[in-house]
Amino acid sequence: MIFTVAIDGPAAAGKGTISKAVAAHFDFAHLDTGLLYRAVGAKVNDGMDAVHAAETLDPSDLNRDDLRTSDAAQAASKVAVNPDVRAALVDFQRNFATREGGAVLDGRDIGTVICPDADVKLFVTASAACRADRRYKELAGKGQDVTLEGVLVDVIARDKRDSERAEAPMIVANDATLIDTSDMSIEQAVAAAINAVDRIR
Ligand code: C5P
User: For binding ATP, which residues are annotated in this chain's numbering (predicted)?
Assistant: First the structure.
């Protein structure tokens, strides 16, 4: 059985949590595609050329433990504007999406570019203030040296770069179901996503 769930949306809207929960609920595989761009950004920070980093990316690169920082997020969104970087990562994502047993992919362009024929498309969003607050708590909780103001500035800068780029900008696919998690608990957001998948499955 091939069944693809595409989950797009801005940083810290709850995509990751929702994607993991949906994948676990339906026993589908999950790919956080942001990690691909973070891993390429990290290699560029190490001095590698961005396109070469994307072309030679190995799944083991996704396990680096420095990918969950604000620096890695900014580096990711900078390499993500490069069409050649994006092109080099397409096959890996499409192969994952069409694997046997079902797949959930989360990112910015899954429902629009990577998997335009996905069985279910969700766009998960929340207000910038709400997202910054969540990301701040997450990073501060891990002991990272961040401020709420700094995280808000980063979130807004990343939203702008992601939605205004020429190649595969972050936009809501016509046929996506919108889930605004600003006033939802994690449980409510997960239930809304599982319902949307259940309606099609
Ligand atoms: O989702 P995450 O915050 O880890 O993504 C990091 C960055 O990678 C995003 O800000 C975006 O620029 C880029 N990205 C992308 N397309 C995707 C996933 C992530 O451009 N499908």
Answer: 9-17
